[in-house]
Amino acid sequence: MKIKLIAIGKTQGAWLIDGIAEYKSRLKHYTSYECIEIPDIKNRANIPIDKLKELEELEIEKYLDKDSFIIALDENGKEYSSENFSNYILKKISFETKSIIFVIGGAFGISNVILERCNDKIALSKMTFSHQMVRLVFTEQLYRAFTIIKNEKYHHK
Amino acid sequence: MKIKLIAIGKTQGAWLIDGIAEYKSRLKHYTSYECIEIPDIKNRANIPIDKLKELEELEIEKYLDKDSFIIALDENGKEYSSENFSNYILKKISFETKSIIFVIGGAFGISNVILERCNDKIALSKMTFSHQMVRLVFTEQLYRAFTIIKNEKYHHK
Question: Nearest Cα to A72, choosing from A107, A19, A109, A31?
């Protein structure tokens, strides 16, 4: 079973890189997990937002294979408690798919074309997190989900 | 106007300390912001959870003055979008109070006594974040709230 995270742009800032690396390293014990950082579109400050999202869309699409269950991390998605998210992951990997791809858009979110291509949408919060912070919060929640599945001590309710 | 965050235990891990420091430093431009870390209760591994929460409660209470509007950061609180949270903060500081205190509990959450003492409860997410991660996510959201109030570029909708 494989889980991938696709994000736009390099992770910025040493503390974010270190935080993500911590949970990524812990995740190794539970699943094959890979984070793909698509390089930022060049000269993006000079590109209109809609055009930028379209260019990012073309890059993201390269990684969306047919056999994967694709989930957008999007503010307008469904919210889960950590327990329910863990249950959701467990059901997906037990019965429905061998590969899950999570997608985080760029600074301006995910294009509608990608959103329609996704099989589901999940929100980490009603609040807006930067696309950089989403990586950290998501990686911790994915790690937390596996500790819940395995009934380990990390998660307190 | 003053905003304080009260949390139990030292922030653990260099990357969390650095991440929180980044948003704390940015917050300086907008408000007086202070984060009070109450030292962990000694030998807490050997204390029953209810007793531990009671001991933490006594420590937290020392910081809850009568003139402040006190908000628990609690999974069962009300969720806000970042825009609505910003609006909430703006109303509070403009008309209702000169001091807001946010409270984050320890690993096992906030005691019921403290929850009842609070004037409001806010949830950052339906998901459970560790009491350490809550500090980082909260500090970023508070910074984001002020950039929204000031109509600055940080927040994209």
Answer: A109
**Smallest Cα–Cα separation from A70: which of A61, A57, A58, A82?**
A61
The distance between the two most distant Cα atoms of chain B, rounded to a whole number of Å, is 49
Nearest to B67 by CA among B1, B143, B135: B1
Q: How far lies A77's CA from each of A73, A85, A110, B81, in Å?
A: 7, 13, 12, 13
Which chain A residues are within 8 Å of B14, Cβ to Cβ? Answer: 15, 18
A104-114 tens-digit pLDDT: 998 888 999 99
CA distance A69 to A34: 15
Distance CA A152, CA A144 (A): 9
Element (H, E) at B33: strand B32-38
Searching chain A, which residue's CA lies closest to the CA of residue B108?
A156
| Cα→Cα distances B36→B7, B89, B107, Å | 6, 20, 16
- Here the ipTM equals 0.93
CA distance B155 to B151: 9
Are residues A53 and A127 in contact, defined by beta-carbon separation less than 8 angstroms? Answer: no
Check pLDDT > 80 for residue B157. Answer: no
Question: Mind listing the pLDDT tens digit for each residue in B58-101?
Answer: 999 999 999 999 999 998 999 999 999 999 999 999 988 999 99
Q: At the top level of CATH, which class does the domain B2-149 belong to?
A: alpha beta
Mean pLDDT, range A103-127, rounded to an integer: 94
Q: How far is A130 from chain B (nearest CA, A)?
A: 8
What is the predicted pLDDT for the residue at A19?
97
Contacts of B6 (CB under 8 A, 6+ apart): B36, B38, B60, B63, B64, B101, B102, B103, B104
Domain ranges of chain A: 2-149
The pLDDT of residue B51 is 93
Could you say which of A14, A107, A127 has the minimum Cβ distance to residue B124? A127
The burial class, CB within 10 Å (0-12 / 13-18 / 19+), for B36 is: middle
Joined tokens for residue B113 = 């006594």
